[in-house]
């Protein structure tokens, strides 16, 4: 009898055949995992999640998956596990390589640091770096760290030291910009890093000193009651919009004061003044409306706006990241001083006049010390927009600072050619040049220069005037760590914020 063929042997090819057909169909229905098209789309999706602060589960939303399938039915959005365990870490690692390369190639860099408490009541520290890379000012996020234990100066110093060491830049850091809290000042001392107090924070303290002027709190309270009424009453809000439409004006909402931001007072008063006529009509037609502002009140508002406006402009100027900001501190402070002198000769109401006197005293107390800070003076001198120092105070400050090593010999006769005399000539030629236009970029000026001062310029022009770069990280973090997403791991938070902050600056090879 002939032996029966083995079923397993005969069935195995059939099974393989069916598997091959299934794989074949799958390959034609969807992109292979290794296909360049899928990798490209995965990268774009991962970038979108980080840059736009989208939920990590976004790829599992039915409506979005249907929409993507309609655009390209061969692509399937990655699920949450793939995104968090593979795609985000991969993009973070690739981007970190590029940032690390730029950091290690830099001669010097400065950092900003700030602490934030999350919705989960966790202390989080952000550190940003600032330096010139390939003749361009960059400010990458270096670390977002969950701080365990006490938030003492000693603990924070250790955390920052470990972070900078991991980046290989510990010995390159020349300055640290933070708020004026004693913890951060002591932290910088422990790290032996030059501390520069955040000018935006100092400006905030300067202006808020004026809020203690007798009568101002009561006046602002009267303004806030009006704002609160229209923001909380739907009928009142609609009535104001209706009147604005009928008068052909923009439909502008009233803005409320926020206790933690002084400029919210300025914005509130400014908006009240802008919609004064429409607001007066709306109040007269609304039941239970608060007392309206009088003509005398609006004169007080005009005076307060005139006083606070220069400080709002100054805060905005020194808080930018795309241009050198430390180098504009002295010109900005000089501009403020001149504005205050001009205002002292104007006819102000009693309350604005008291505010002006208080804020002038606060400027002398809090802002004058910046005029003697060597880093501020050097940065201003190396800024071709403002290289010619003219004020008496600034000249005296120059004599008292390290900059005397740079400029004390400018009045001496030029010696015969040697390295020292070449440096003297270099400095003299630069100082004697006229200032460039205010719209021109200081870094672009030095990029084209062959002067030996270029190294010093890059060193000091990269220092930020404020710790706003670190603070802005937490504005983004607040969008990620919401009440509904307060269990997000610190690792994923670091990855998302790192990509969001750094992708545009270092995306060439990622």
UniProtKB/TrEMBL annotation:
Residues 427-502 form the HAT C-terminal dimerisation domain. It holds the Pfam family Dimer_Tnp_hAT. Residues 1-20 are annotated as: Disordered. Keywords: Metal-binding, Nucleus, Zinc, Zinc-finger. InterPro entries: HATC_C_dom (IPR008906), RNaseH-like_sf (IPR012337), ZnF_BED_domain_contain (IPR052035). GO terms for cellular component: nucleus. It is found in: Nucleus. Residues 8-19 have a biased composition (Polar residues). One of its GO terms (molecular function) is zinc ion binding. This is HAT C-terminal dimerisation domain-containing protein. It comes from Oedothorax gibbosus.
